[in-house]
Amino acid sequence: MSRIATFTIIGLLLAAPVLTAQAQSKHSNTPAKPKKLFCWNEGKERICSDALPQDAVNSAREEFSVNSGLRKGGVDRTLTEQERADAAVAAAQHQLDQAAEDTRQRTEQAMLSTYQDEADLRRVFVERTGILDNNVQTANYNVASLRSALVTLLGSAGDRELAGEPVAPKQAEDIRLRHAELVAQKRMQDSYVEQRKALDVEIEETLQRYRLLKGVSTDPRG
């Protein structure tokens, strides 16, 4: 196997047709098998050879015809396990993005063909709006009730302490339980409020998109 650096590649390519012609004249009865010249990088050095060593098999390389000196193609380097995993994730994400775009386009077409006007479209959100409004109201009532009950229990426990009496174990346990219930209910209340705000945003964005698809101006001046 011969290995040469970049500065000799031009001479080799220029001499290749002559050498090939000489070889064919000596073996005119045996068709010459097309040979390739491989070029790849090893660090900062450019290496070219008519045979590919094992340690360069996974490297990116270019391939030239020894007969004509023309570039015949190239091979990208072999990806690492991490790069293959990253590529698979990217491909899967691209597929998901394309599916989401296809769904969006179908949804928009259905929107145009199904709903005659904004009022018709708003009715789609009536049920969700009603459910969330009811959840918020129920959570508000529960939070108020639990807070009132906790204040009463704390007041009673405070009165006992002021009177020099210890807080009964059951009373202390009731305070702990009421406080835990209040914290949990408050979290639920906050969640319902955030969901209701998010729904308002979704409704407005949907209406804006509908107006755009319909070609209706969103400018209040018309």
Rounded Rg: 39 Å
Q: What summary fits the major beta sheet?
A: 5 strands, antiparallel
The tally of helices reads 5
CATH topology label of the largest domain: Helix Hairpins
Question: Any idea what the shape is?
Answer: elongated
Mean pLDDT: 79
Structural class: alpha+beta
Q: Briefly, what CATH class of the largest domain?
A: Mainly Alpha
Euclidean distance between termini CA atoms: 79 Å
Helix content: 55-70%
Main sheet strand line-up: 1-3-2-4-5
- Please report which band the strand proportion falls in: under 5%, 5-15%, 15-25%, 25-35%, 35-45% or over 45%: 5-15%
Pick out the low-confidence regions: 6-10, 12-21
SSE pattern, N- to C-terminal: EHEEEEHHHH
CATH architecture of the largest domain: Orthogonal Bundle
What can you tell me about this protein's structure?
The protein is an alpha+beta fold. The chain folds into 3 domains: about 5-75, no CATH class; about 80-115; about 115-215, Helix Hairpins (Orthogonal Bundle), CATH 1.10.287. Helix content is about 65%, strand content about 10%. The protein is built from 5 helices and 5 strands, in the order βαββββαααα. It has helices at about 10-25, 80-115, 120, 125-160, 170-215, and strands spanning about 5, 35-40, 45-50, 60-65, 70-75. Strands 1-3-2-4-5 form a 5-stranded antiparallel sheet, with no helix packed on it. α4 runs antiparallel to α5 (about 170-215). The longest helix has about 45 residues, at about 170-215. The model is unreliable at about 5-10 and about 10-20 (pLDDT under 50).
